[in-house]
Amino acid sequence: MSGSQRLWTALSEVQDPEMPVNLVDLGVIYGIAERDGVVDVDLTFTAMGCPASDFILDDVRERLLREDGVREVRVNVVWNPPWTAARITQAGRDALEAWGLAV
Fold first, then answer.
1. How far apart are CA 22 and CA 89, in angstroms?
2. Domain count, the chain
3. Angle CA(6)–CA(13)–CA(81) in degrees, nearest 5?
4. In 10 A of CB 6, how many CB atoms?
5. Which domain holds residue 94?
């Protein structure tokens, strides 16, 4: 598994605190880059002022820091392009529908 894929897989273990879906399947992770033990993550939120934003940022940092060789995580919150439900993967849609949400 490539370094980048390993980090995407790690973030697929981080659940959104308000919905039963992980951040990767929710489509809020826009990009991950690693260089010399420093990981840069571009992510967004489903809405500005998301009440769970601090929890999500902490969870992303904490999970990536558990990966071998990762010594620093820098999270960049981006708003462009804006998040839409079209970014949700099929697995994410299935999880949300099972929870009773239409997507």
1. 10
2. 1
3. 80
4. 16
5. 3-98
